[in-house]
Fold this sequence. Notes:
The structure is a homodimer.
Chain A: E1 3-6, E2 13-16, E3 54-57, E4 68-74, E5 89-91, E6 94-98, E7 102-107, H1 121-139, E8 146-153, E9 165-171, H2 176-192, H3 196-207, E10 212-215, E11 219-222, E12 233-237, H4 252-270, E13 275-280, H5 295-298, E14 302-307, H6 314-319, E15 322-324, H7 328-337
Amino acid sequence: MPELRRDPVIGRWVIISTERAKRPSDFTVVPEVRRPGPCFFCEGHEAETPPEVFALRENHSAPNCPGWQVRVVPNKYPALRIEGDLNREGVGMCDMMNGVGAHEVIVETPEHDKSLADLDEFHISKILWVYTQRISDLGRDDRFKYVLVFKNQGEAAGASLQHAHSQLIATPVTPKWVKEELVGARSYYEYKQRCIFCDYIKQETRLFTERLVMNTEGFVALSPFAARFPFEIWILPKRHMCDFTYIEGREFGDLANVLRTVLNKMRVALHDPPFNFIIHTSPFRRPRAGYWGTIEQDYHWHFEIIPRLTKMAGFEWGSGFYINPTPPEVAAQVLRDAVPEA
Amino acid sequence: MPELRRDPVIGRWVIISTERAKRPSDFTVVPEVRRPGPCFFCEGHEAETPPEVFALRENHSAPNCPGWQVRVVPNKYPALRIEGDLNREGVGMCDMMNGVGAHEVIVETPEHDKSLADLDEFHISKILWVYTQRISDLGRDDRFKYVLVFKNQGEAAGASLQHAHSQLIATPVTPKWVKEELVGARSYYEYKQRCIFCDYIKQETRLFTERLVMNTEGFVALSPFAARFPFEIWILPKRHMCDFTYIEGREFGDLANVLRTVLNKMRVALHDPPFNFIIHTSPFRRPRAGYWGTIEQDYHWHFEIIPRLTKMAGFEWGSGFYINPTPPEVAAQVLRDAVPEA
């Protein structure tokens, strides 16, 4: 009998197929042909991108020159434009505003042939730290309400370039799923006076551990109870923090290790699948106080990692009602058992 | 400058690229190789499917034998099972129930080589009428809250079989987007004491007509103001009705004509793209009365048709925040101008 499971935060029901659960061998991943470098994200080709907005450099190397480790540049084909006012206006009963926002590319390494999972823990720490710097910086611009940090790896996941990179989009509106998570987390807080994510982490590490992939000092990686996609994995900090930029210096290495290990486990178990990840963090300019609690108290940032193993059918595409052919317990078991290549 | 547009019903913001708007020639549709028949949906192969639950037959032909025009069979690989109780239960702080539901296939024609757009208006009327019959019948089962009727055409849209068919899934929960639309429609009704869809149709047919594709006696086809996808088209009845099964006999032909024409315009203008459609209708067992109005008064059924021209990137996949490269005004113009093949 298949199961219907409800996501505790936003209340979304998902169909989980429990019979004939799809295992990694049931998914076909078409290996992508590697295009050789150099490309314009490579070291020595800095002049071929728009001028950098941020870079982590050693030895006092000059901007837009070699010598960087992580480099942030504006997207050449931005979805939103950095200049201009919002000009909110009505169009009949509808609403619109100018597409003002930032769209940046975080080049994760100067080396063309390394993917994120190939980088060492210290280098991944630097990338994560760069995310925090960009989020904080963009937060100073009053026009923006949110920064979405995400990564597409592989053509099937929407990546047009193979050189390892992630992206961010700063938007003048709060994305819909963020609002949904905020509303869900707040209503749980009103009821329990506790963070729903903290409670969920405790449940999944103490009461049931079958969906757990990793459990370190500071972080857990797990396949969520109502996972929408096969092998969907969330990484959450065990310490309560609503905002990704609250990560402390001492915690970056731990998070980098968890992210690196999960990606390498996926690579081995699922044959290097295309994937996306997205960081769910709190919006800027959140209210300071509330009767029942604030976003500071009730929201909890996390990573969502989604390997692209299935096509979305019409039904899912148009309805937000997902059918997941791999129970999260099976996915977690497979990933727990996977041994990353040395 | 790109635009941010907000869907008036559910409040979702969408990025619309206005510069370099993508026109049909910017999308690559890989033509699908037709697999020759007969297949188990063909006339004469009725024994190869599960026994039919409904069929439109002439000349008193017997069930599960040739002589049908539209035939409904249970899905051989159902996402949900028809037998059993719901057994709602908690799993720690999470919720689950048995995956009870109906999953049926509506075989649209006995002929292997015809697609929905090839069928004549009268035959399409019959398919639409069959949808109403199946929805009404499943509504008598107290376990179900909703029936989703949808169609995947083309492999890229999730169809595993080429013989023309649509599907329905009856679920014991209301899908998330239905809830969102109901909440949005209700809050507009509370404010205005009018149906938001009726107002929207009037705006798009009287005030602005640039997004209009067709406007017949009973129906409009339009590309919505905040379309998520290029060439996304909605078909709405001009007469207020919350439920798809309220279509009157005299209206089937008009709707069939609009659906048929839109699909044929898409086929010509977009080179026979894979597509999905989904019917948005009201849930079963809706409250009879409310202080401000009922679903009867504030909701309005409609078709959403989505050609699959783009891949969803990670950002859209995980955030519900869409980037649409073709403004709906451009899409509507292209489809208005498209002349279906004779």
